[in-house]
Amino acid sequence: MRPAIALTTVSRSYGRGDSAVRALGNVSLEFPAGSFTAIMGPSGSGKTTLLQCAAGLDRPDSGSVRVGELELTELSEKRLAQLRRREVGFVFQSFNLLPSLTAAQNVVLPLRLGGQRPKRGTARAALDRVGLGKRARHLPAELSGGQQQRVAIARALVAEPRVIFADEPTGALDTRSAREALALLRSLVDEDGRTIVMVTHDPVAAAVADRVVFLADGQVVDSMTAPRADAVAARMTALGA
Ligand SMILES: Nc1ncnc2c1ncn2[C@@H]1O[C@H](COP(=O)(O)OP(=O)(O)OP(=O)(O)O)[C@@H](O)[C@H]1O
C-alpha cells in the first residue's frame, strides 16, 4: 500500500555561507496510512522543519515529498495552499483560535477561507466528534485550555483530511487535558483511519503513537515501534536531550 506521506532524501538549510544551518540532511521517511507517528529529538534537531516540509508549509532544498498521490515539490503555491486547506489538518501548541469567533465559527473558518459556505451542522458535527457539541457558541476565552485544543482539533478535522500534523499539541496543557487530547488524537487513527504525525518533547505523549522517530542534527538516528514512555525517555537522554 502507498504510504500516506513519503519523504525521500529531503534536505533543508537555512541561511547561506558560514552562517548556514542544515536543519534536515537527506531524510527519508514513510508514514503508513492509518498510523500515528511521534517525532522526537533534542531542541534544534529539525523536528518542526520536518513537519513543515511534510505538510507543504515549507519547501525542501532537495528531495521529494509525496502526500498520497501528490508530489508537493512540483506544486505551485496556489495548489500547495489548496492542499493545506483540503488534504491535511494542523494542530499547534498554542491552539491558534481567533478570540473574537465562537468555537463553531473557528471550526468552519478553514472552509470559509477556502471560499466554501459550510453546510448547516458541519461545525456541530466536528465539535460533537471532540465532545464539545454543547460549547459551539462559546468564545475561546470561555473555554479551558484543554477544550480550546479540542476545538482546534475539530477545526483540523472540518475538511475531513486524511493526514493531521500536530506540533507539540500537548505542550500548553495540564496532565489531564493532555491525556484527553492524546486519547482523542489516538481515536482519529483507530476509529477514523486518519494518519497523524506529531512532534513532541513528552515521552508520555510519544508513547501514544505507534512509532517514535528520533532526530538528531537533522538526521533520523533511530525509531521505536510500540513505544513505552520509559524507553522513549531513556533514548532521549542518550541523545543528550
Ligand atoms: N527560519 C529559520 N531561519 C534560520 N534557521 C532556522 C529557521 N528555522 C529553523 N532554523 C534552524 O534549523 C534547525 C532546526 O530547527 P527546527 O525548528 O526544525 O528544530 P526543532 O527540533 O523543531 O527544535 P525545537 O525542539 O527547539 O522546536 C535549528 O538549528 C534552527 O535554529
From TrEMBL:
Q: Which stretches are transmembrane?
A: none
Show the SMART domains listed in the entry: AAA (SM00382)
Keyword Iron-sulfur in the entry? The reply is no
Write out the GO MF terms. Answer: ATP binding; ATP hydrolysis activity; transmembrane transporter activity
Alphabetized, the UniProt keywords read: ATP-binding, Nucleotide-binding, Transport
InterPro entries attached here?
AAA+_ATPase (IPR003593), ABC_transporter-like_ATP-bd (IPR003439), ABC_transporter-like_CS (IPR017871), ABC_transpr_LolD-like (IPR015854), MacB-like_ATP-bd (IPR017911), P-loop_NTPase (IPR027417)
- Output this protein's name: ABC transporter ATP-binding protein
Provide the species name.
Solirubrobacter phytolaccae
Q: Which Pfam families match?
A: ABC_tran
What cellular component terms from Gene Ontology apply here?
Answer: membrane protein complex; plasma membrane
Q: Where is the ABC transporter domain?
A: 5-241
